[in-house]
Amino acid sequence: MVSLDRERLFGHIDEYYHSSFEGWKQSYAIFNQVQQFTSHSATYHQLFPLLEHRGFHTTLLNDDPAWISTELEAGAAHTLLLYNHYGTHPLWDLCALASRMLAIDLYREWAGTLPINIKWLLHRTTTANVSAPLHSIVKEHSQHLQADGCLCDELRSPEESTLFSIGDDTPVLFLGCKGLLGIELASQVTTTPISSRYGSIVPDAAWRLLWALNSLKNAREEIMIDGFYDTIAPIEDDAAAALYTLPDTAPVLAEQWGISDLLPGLCGLQMHYAHLLTPSCTINFIAGGDETSAQIPAQARAQIEFSLVPGQKPDDILASLQHHLHEHGFSDIHVQQRSSCPPAYTQPSHPFVQLVSSATTQVWEQAPLMLPIMPSSHPLAPLQQRANMPLLITSTGSSHLQWDHPSMTALLKQKLKQTALIIHRLGTMA
Fold first, then answer.
1. pLDDT (tens digit, 9 = 90+) per residue, 393-412?
2. CATH 3.30.70.360 region(s) of the chain?
3. pTM of the model
4. Cβ-proximal residues to 333 (8 Å cutoff; 6+ apart), any chain
5. Which fold has domain 179-230+279-339?
6. Count of CB atoms within 10 A of residue 85's CB?
């Protein structure tokens, strides 16, 4: 019966997909222009009638037009939360939104009604995003965003395709994501710069900061903060199984990035494990003094970023960092948090993971590449922790695809079928 329902659903989508999508193609130029040249509010007013027409009740979280929360209440037992961000790749953004709206349209045409409630969080991102951070959104609206599972849609980067040696048509499911802690460290030793001729008797803010930074990590890339690794949660064998199947792309990556070797000579399984399941600490920016003058810098600052894995909490790492600096004689170094996002992880045995994996397999006619965590942070990770909600991140497509490219047409139909089948399966779940 389940197989017969799937065949009928897919048959209906195949029959009506082309005519339904033509209207969205005509909207691309307008959508592109609105995203590039107008405000968050203008984009919201373009999306609002599309959502309202389908029966969605739409609100702005914290009155911020960059955060659109919309809900389609069907009085059902189960609820699916969808997440899309848009604003950086207009073509892909519109395609992602279109595939989900068309999935809802075509499913209702086929079945008459939706078997689940749908919540949809839309976030407009820009290169200079000034919208409210999601942790504050989640804190205030976690109950409103509660669902049986969350499905996030991400555009695959070219580096990701190279790293995993996969094509645009290969579906990837991430069971979670890394966390993030962004910190600014600052040293100030004098009120004004002093001539370097006094370097033997005047402290140097840049050296002071460098010594503090040097205490954080050794030459073997090990982070030296006490307890930094102690809380890392083990990953189940079946969650890490896919890492053993990934090819060794270290030489390709090294050549692409213009380096002789990866750190520290990693390749194959060790490279993939380190990339996905090992925390890191990087210096993203450092400055001190004036290159045009021979003066001892009065102040220096650096921005560092901790990439965290499941089990590590940004607040705990921040406290450990402050304790580390104090214990190593750097209590004068000013520490300021710039960004924070916890890691997220859902076990592969969770029913929602099994449902999405099965639906994806039946649509693409191949099992998805299921990886334990995405190597970057994700804005919905706080929601997964606060609401104890399974979070899955799908990665498909590529920014180089164009409207009339056959691969794009096929991919969009697959994404549409995936959403529709997940809706159907969740609606029949006990």
1. 998 766 565 656 667 778 88
2. 179-230+279-339
3. 0.89
4. 185, 186, 187, 208, 209, 212, 325
5. Alpha-Beta Plaits (3.30.70)
6. 22
